[in-house]
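Q: Predict the assembly, please.
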Amino acid sequence: MITWPNFLSQLFNGLALGALLALISSGLTIIYGTLGVLNLAHGAMFMLGGYAGYVAFEATGSFIVAVIAGALFVGIVGVVMERVIIRHFYGRPHEDQLLVTFGLAICFVEIVRFFFSSLSKTVPPPSLFSGITSLGVMFYPTYRLAVVGIVAVALLVLFLVLYRTRLGMIVRAGIEDSTMVDSLGINVDRVFMLVFGIGAMAAGFAGIVNAPVVSLTPDMGESILVQTFVVVVIGGVGSFPGAVLGGLIAGEIISLTSMVNPSYAYVMLFAAMTLVLMVRPHGLLGTRGRE
Amino acid sequence: MQDGNSNWYRRSRRDFMRTSLGLAGGLALPGGFARVFAAEHPPIGTWPAGASGKSVFIGIAVPRTGTYAVQGEDELKGWQLAVEHINSGHPLIKKISPKTDKGVLGKEVKYGVADSAAKPNDAVQAQQRFITENKAILITGSTSSAVAVALNKLAQREKVLYVTGISGSNDTTGKDCVRYGFRQCFYGQTAAAAIGPIVVKAYGKNKKAAYLTPDYTYGHTVTKSMQDYLATAGWTTATNQVAPLGAPDYSSYLLNVANSGADVLINVNWGHDAVLSIQQAKQFGILDKMKLVVPYQIPFLSREAGPALLADVYAATDFWWTLEDKFPLAKMFVEAFEKKFGYKPEWGANNAYMSFALWAEAVENAGTFYPPDVIKSFEAGRKIQSTVGEVYFRKEDHQLVRPVIIVKGKKPSEMKGKEDFYEVVEIVPGAPLMQKPDAFGCNLGSYT
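A: Predicted assembly structure:
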């Protein structure tokens, strides 16, 4: 199936897939970089964003309201989760953090299943972006094109927050050396809460933006979580630019491999991760020794 | 029974004495006959321990999470209804298994449920536990043929009977068949042989087909069967997109399909994978250019993907509720199911119900839970009334010989009710659809 039009289609599709992965992964990597907590509930947050948006859409019929509701709801869930549970685990071993976030993920999934059953739910794209667009070599769903734009804007906002605000400076300093930030008298506690909220919000936002592309099921976060971990490892743990680069690389690997042999698309993703770990154990844009 | 006859001549005087004493004891003690029968055979699997109390236990491992969760829940409801009917001696069970009174051989049926998530390892672990701790006399469950094949092997090793849940792979009663496993439902070969002629008639000869195939035994064998059949009508494969179970996105596969120049999209994906891939095929404009065919129908597909996407789509299936107009037992089943669960049953539930009913029928006719005798009862080839007419098990590969139902999706405007998704196009008799018993390399293995 390697033809010129197909190659271009897959190259573009890789970008679209990668953009979404980049957005979800950036939330995961910021949380890990700042707080040192590997949030296994991140996939569940992605799913929660989709369902919260779905509820808002059913109630109002407005996609914009759905997006705001999805992102805000998960942001609030993130803050509550950090205040009530996660902050008690900062000083505890990584295994405990993994277990508690894994447990929370199961709770979120089963709560959603209890209220919505396993039957999938759909959120239609806004009418402005429905239908198909011809890109010369191929037809591409208009909404997927829009997603690339929406995600690019969201990533830009995240970039500005991280690199052009005081909060962002503290976060980045925290990623480099959290003890030092603490000893400078900065209220790390409040920063941690905000970071967790922002990271969760990124996942929730991605969840509802992605909802018209997929159909929502309670389990949808599981496979996304695995992919985001691969992205974060490829890009460099704790690195925001790394998450973006890793996301794009992962998207391209999936798309381009499928052109040669579709059954190897996901296998190649893991092969790439293994290769990166062998050559650059701290990831492509990660820093050696970063915790 | 041949084994029994030849042994008879070899029996010594001591054996005769022992049997006589056993019979005398059996007559003297209440419930003694069971012990007499037990004395004739050495223990095997969970027998006689699992059949010595007032109840017998069935282990059910079914996906309640993951890609096949929706279908798993539906199956579970079918089993629950069957157990309820068996224990109460419901008229429907008596039509299928006339010797059934209440329970199976008078014993109440109990069951335990475990979530397999459609993963073979999880299913085998759960069933191993049911066998060891609950002395399960029967195990069931599968919505994935990978699970069915794994449980087949477990059943043969542990010498505990297994009736499959949903399993569409040719391998389940083909190269991976076992003496202790039985399948009620249709499968790749019969699906292809039934839907093939209808698809060729509708769309013509010498067409190009694109396949979406899940990457495990079910997907590979169903796609192969479809390819083999359609090749006889000059069809070729434009592309075969093999994707892992539970793929989160089908865009890259669908772009390959869109660029393949195929006329027909044959979607072998199942569960939520089918819902997602069909919805995304629509997003990519593929369904406007290609005809969609679903060779192995998915329960709840129309409810989830919406009837508009399935309008005029041909699918092969095991059961559809409007068969109640043709088969009285189907009517009884649909009514009982809807009364209990509030919706029209899909084929997974019907398959589950029938598999237990057929097991009850086999045990009642064997007159014992002793597994080799129950197997021989299954293998006797009795004609049994079912929700799709008369059926029987083929003794060479333990596959039920049963019709395959071809349905066509109704347009939303044609639907007479909210669950009236399909019109039954044809009820294709089963026997001519099946391959020769040894064609897929079935070797059942031993009884003991």
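Chain B has two domains: 51-187+328-402, 189-321. Residues 189-321 of chain B form a domain with the Rossmann fold fold (CATH 3.40.50.2300).
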